[in-house]
Amino acid sequence: MPLRRESWGFIIGSLLFALAAAPGYARWVGVDGDNITYFVGSLFFTAAGFIALRLSGRPVPTSESAKVERFDWWAAAIQFVGTLLFNLSTAIAMMNGLTVRAVDRWVWRPDVFGSLAFLVASALAVVATTETDKLWDPQARDWRSTWLNMVGSIAFGVSAVGAFVRPSTGQLADAALANAGTFIGALCFLAAALLMRPLGGIPNKR
After folding, report:
1. What's residue 61's pLDDT?
2. CA–CA distance from 3 to each of 112, 120, 122, 149, 196 (Å)?
3. What per-residue confidence (pLDDT) applies to 1?
């Protein structure tokens, strides 16, 4: 079932991102192992993002489409682009001997734009959800999942700010903030994915 595969993709991707950002993990597996964990996690995000885009409707919505359909499609499309940017940043991060300029161009910038894409996609998803649910309806599983994704996207954005590499030192602006933002964001995405997952093969109900 497509929705089930989508949920599992986000679940595994979120778990790997949370693991990679967890305190002590990088020291245990080494920098290379940590970067590989991020990269594999990004692949699961991309696979899940592609399924989400397919589920939102194959044709691009037109002006005649319902508002919820337009916002839902664009949220999925922008989210998918964000996952591709994370693929790029995590893949380049695995390379050794990168200069500060190369890290800024090929790792930090895609990370920032990927986080921004997630944030925009989450905002569009909030609008789409509000069209079917209320703006405040914590009893609805779709509502809780959407807002958890929004919080996760904000946390990823904060992480990107902390991950900026200072040209003068080659060090992260705030490594603790970068890891904390990634860890919290990944847990939010994990919780959101678990809410999307069908229970016992029964379609998702509010």
Report:
1. 63
2. 28, 22, 18, 16, 8
3. 42
